Amino acid sequence: MNNGNTLVPAYSLRQLAGYFLKLGTVGFGGPVALVGYMHRDLVEQRKWMTEEDYREGLALAQLAPGPLAAQLAIYLGFVHYRYWGATLAGIAFVIPSFLMVLTIGYIYVQAGGIPWMQAIFYGIGAAVIGIIAVSSYKLTRKSLGSNKLLWLFFLVLAVSTYLTESENLWLILAAGAINLLVVAPPGWPGRKQYYYYPVLLLQIGVAAAPDKLMQIAWYFFKAGAFVFGSGLAIVPFLYGGVVKEFGWLNEQQFLDAVAVAMITPGPVVITVGFIGYLVAGFPGATVAALATFLPCYLFTILPAPWFSRYGKHPSIKAFVDGVTAAAVGAIGGAVLVLAKRQLTDITTIILAVLTILVLLRFKKIPEPYLILAAAVSGLLIKTFL
Known about the structure:
This protein has helices at residues 13-26, 30-45, 51-63, 68-111, 117-144, 148-164, 169-183, 212-226, 234-245, 251-263, 271-301, 304-310, 314-342, 346-361, 367-384. The protein is mainly alpha-helical.
């Protein structure tokens, strides 16, 4: 099956929307786990997408700004059903977690905080590390094979991401360029042949907006348009604006917002909905979510036709393979960074290791069951120990 319309897809538009609605409802573990689920479900099990479709989507999602998992969902929706598929996949993927954070936001405001959240997050956070570690391992093994050059790109980005605690876009692009020159050195392209769709950094200036909703819209639009990497990469950017610049939330409220994003399924970046709710109620949550995901949507569908048309070219494929290897390395480095912050004592380490062993031993166990067990474990440990 290819990216074009010459073959009838093996699934309907309703089935596509249904899959992403389910993934957005029960897909725990953050961006690393979510992109792993998409590969497992859509490429390996259902065979709705080819390995090439998935790799092209992952590479494009990594090259463009915005949350990784949401962009990959939008691209995979585009593969066979073009703009309708991209739009429905994106909405279906995001809406369940948005409704969840709205509900939690309402409870949070009514109760004046969520004192039990730290206990739940203590257990869930450790299990999440185990889940994303296994997802990263499977994605790495599938993407790199025995290619030594791709493993080198992987290691460089993994170490760089771990040491700097941020993803380096230029290293990712360099990996693609080096692999292109080594694997498929081009005769320099003519004016109609391109090897990278340039990222359109939006240089838009606005006057100071006294209205809070306008402030929220512009700030979160910038967050969606200028932050590269997975949804986790947006957290430090949000902290600088939401806490330091505008003072909309205090430190504890911001940490609670991040925790809410981690304990709910779907994209981690949905924390913007919770933050928006705390700042300006339901209108604030809606504006923050729409403003954050609009750039993500545009930066995916605009280059998608080009990517699907030329992605099979040997030079393009070599570039994409290099970028994918580097992107997977960055994901692996991010797992180590999260583990360093989350696994702070012997109990959390044990919970994470148990999660890994269970996932490797019982390959079909649903992740939500593990999340529920970890939440109960966290409550019991914090209550009685």
